[in-house]
């Protein structure tokens, strides 16, 4: 069933942003620290058994210089410079195996698939990157409450910094046209996309697909689904820490990053999505500061448009690249 406002109301939904005064300073310091600690990335050839693409196993420096894994996949024999899609992954998933990521190389792009630290054992795509910075404080099982009482130790500070460094690493590869880098991902990957869009200039486009990590407080009030349920459970137990939790999350809200974005964007939303309620998606979309469009999947849940959305993205980028 439809789980949120009617579509006409969603299109007009523009909640007041809840943003800490030091939001920009916090992220500038975070990224400066990551860059200062960075070491050169490694791109090692990987025998994927695939004949139409060349694959490299990547290790690059993310938050605080910590090593993050990725795949770099490009059409075999390409001489470049190629446009590149940097992709972020949904909640619980890791980078998986190269043959699970062939769509963008088939469309003629270089493809940089960032592993998500600590994830990759959630039941679908496997991962290879640890998260060494867990605060050690009590948390609800999962990632949403890891370090949630302090913005400096919150899990997504590390992940969003990793995302920015993934773009910077992709841009440095000799096969990539640094002026034609696109970011995208679904669910958690869409939330990371919004964060990176608000932190990185000069992107060709951003493609947040049914994005997660937007308007956290509202999400916990209107859905019982995971992963937002992790926050609800934590607040249910730690009754005296509720405001401290949401004070931290102001630094990580996709709505606040959307208001800083400069790249054109193609969003998607599903009106029967109880995992990432449509109003939380529209909160980010309606605050998004650059040119934008949104695909509405009226009768879909969190799966969104799937192959239909991917087709729309391929056509969207083809049009942008031809300008």
From TrEMBL:
Binding-site positions, substrate: 91
Domain Acetyl xylan esterase intervals: 2-319
GO biological process: polysaccharide metabolic process
Leader peptide range in chain numbering: none
InterPro entries: AB_hydrolase_fold, AXE1_dom, CE7
Catalytic site: 187 (nucleophile), 273 (charge relay system), 302 (charge relay system)
Molecular function terms, GO-annotated: carboxylic ester hydrolase activity
PANTHER family: CEPHALOSPORIN-C DEACETYLASE (PTHR40111:SF1)
Protein name as it appears in the record: Cephalosporin-C deacetylase
Organism listed in the record: Phytohabitans rumicis
Gene that produces this protein: axeA
